[in-house]
Specification:
Elements lengths: L11 H12 L9 H4 L1 H10 L6 E5 L8 E7 L2 E7 L5 E5 L14 E3 L3 E2 L6 E2 L5 E3 L18 E7 L2 E5 L8 H4 L3 H5 L7 E10 L3 H8 L5 H4 L1 H4 L8 H19 L8 E3 L11 E7 L27 E7 L3 E5 L4 E10 L2 E10 L11 H26 L15 H17 L7
Antiparallel strand pairs: 1-10, 2-3, 2-5, 3-4, 4-9, 6-7, 7-8, 9-10, 11-17, 12-13, 13-14, 14-15, 15-16, 16-17
Helix pairs in contact: 1-11, 3-11, 6-10
The structure holds FE2/S2 (inorganic) cluster and fe (ii) ion.
Length: about 425
């Protein structure tokens, strides 16, 4: 069965009353309306997604001048390019004449971006180089017609973009992760593999699934046997505390077990979530792999396996799961009302060689397998949520706490976006 999400007879008034109802019962899952309304989807893009810091790529993926990659968010396309001076730039893939996309291939190397329609030419930093025959217009100024720029920061080689020119600083919030994340030496790390999962469900269902581990015991048997996050804290406290006690000494990294949490409504600015904590693996497991044994050389400054794994959040939609021998980045992006792209990027130490120091199949097995399991349950979830008979139930107070943080931020932001609500 193909799900067709739709909500007819939609309006700002309807959205407003739905938001009031949800905000009045914060401990329950949200109404199906929020997964089915085109009006909601448009407002999410404008007020949440295009105001948030979002991971674009690792700087090593575009190492040379003229290298670029496209990033697709919703129906929009963004170019990330390296200019002749080695600087990175983010810009909208929209010609300043009549709007054609100036770049089609998802990655490559260019000396300029040439619009295929009437031939306007742009430099690698987005500035205009030439607008064919426009000299006959006395009003035309090439300087005013560069590709629209996008905010961009490079944190340890992780490149984030933000389409809001007034976005808050992101490096400050991220600097709270410097110690534990710095240990992996991500700036010189290698992208060993990346894969995009096109999931036919609303992006919130996909993200909400990632934000809770209530389902881990029932849906992810391979993951659950090694990761303590699938249990209540009171149950796994001894395992986690023993790991935290030895973490700095075993890894050789001062501050490896630092924890910091300012996400969603508590973030240091809109969309600038920043989170780190270290949690335990069950005894006998050293890393996140098919059998819990190492799949690559130790990363960066890390000297040994402490039986722990680092959990990170950077912005509302980007996460990392870092083991001593490899790191796994997750990024969630809405494409349409009913489709979502999940990108997973696997990093290994910068000098590790495929086929010698690691096997890609072994490296990616656990999280590829787990994501396929997630896709299965998300589709089942989507099917039920799209039924007129769905009545949202209560969240689990511990397992689904972070999911609730996301939902409250989401509802609050949509509420703030309504006319006459900006000051409330
Ligand atoms: S739309 Fe690009 S040159 Fe006309
Ligand atoms: Fe899952």
């Amino acid at each position: 069965m193909t799900l067709i999400a739709t909500d007819v007879d939609d309006s700002i008034e309807k959205l407003s009353s739905k938001l009031s109802a949800e905000l009045a019962r914060p401990t329950h899952a949200i109404d199906p309306y929020f997964y089915r309304s085109h009006l909601v989807h448009e407002r999410e893009l404008e007020h949440l997604i295009f105001r948030s810091w979002i991971y674009a790529l690792h700087a090593s993926e575009i190492p040379n001048k003229g290298d670029y990659q496209l990033l697709e968010i919703g129906e929009d396309s963004i170019i990330i390019a390296r200019d002749d001076q080695g600087e990175l730039h983010g810009m909208h893939n929209i010609c300043r004449h009549r709007g054609a996309a100036v770049c089609e291939a998802p990655c490559g190397n260019r000396s300029t971006f040439v619009c295929p329609y009437h031939g306007w030419v742009y430099n690698l930093d987005g500035s205009m180089r030439a607008a064919r025959e426009m000299h006959v217009s006395s009003e035309f100024d090439a300087q005013d017609h560069g590709l629209k720029k996008i905010r961009l920061v490079n944190y340890m080689g992780l490149v984030f973009i933000n389409c809001d020119p007034n976005a808050v600083d992101f490096i400050g919030p991220l600097s709270n992760l410097d110690k534990p994340l710095g240990a992996y030496q991500l700036a010189s790390a290698k992208v060993a593999h990346k894969k995009t999962y096109h999931i036919p469900a609303n992006w919130k269902l996909v993200l909400e699934n990632y934000l809770e581990c209530y389902h881990c015991a029932t849906s992810h048997r391979a993951y659950a046997k090694m990761h303590t996050l699938k249990d209540l804290e009171e149950k796994v406290e001894p395992v986690v505390n023993a790991m935290l006690a030895r973490s700095d000494a075993v890894t050789g990294v001062d501050g490896m077990s630092t924890s910091y949490r300012k996400i969603y409504l508590e973030a240091e600015g809109f969309g600038a979530c920043s989170y780190t904590s270290r949690y335990g693996l069950f005894d006998g497991y050293l890393t996140g792999s098919r059998d819990g044994q190492p799949v690559a050389p130790l990363m960066g400054d890390i000297q040994g396996y402490d039986g722990g794994a680092g959990d990170y959040q950077m912005g509302p939609l980007t996460f990392m799961l870092n083991y001593p021998d490899h790191c796994v980045l997750y990024r969630f992006l809405p494409r349409t009302l009913t489709t979502t792209d999940v990108e997973i990027v696997w990093y290994v130490n910068g000098d590790a060689q495929a086929g010698v120091d690691y096997d890609v199949e072994d490296l990616i097995w656990l999280w590829d397998h787990t994501t396929q399991e997630d896709e299965y349950i998300i589709l089942r979830n989507s099917k039920g949520v799209n039924s007129r008979f769905f009545e949202p139930g209560p969240y689990h107070p511990e397992f689904e706490a972070t999911l609730q943080d996301f939902v409250h931020w989401y509802l609050h932001t949509l509420r703030q976006s309504l006319p006459n609500q900006a000051a409330s």
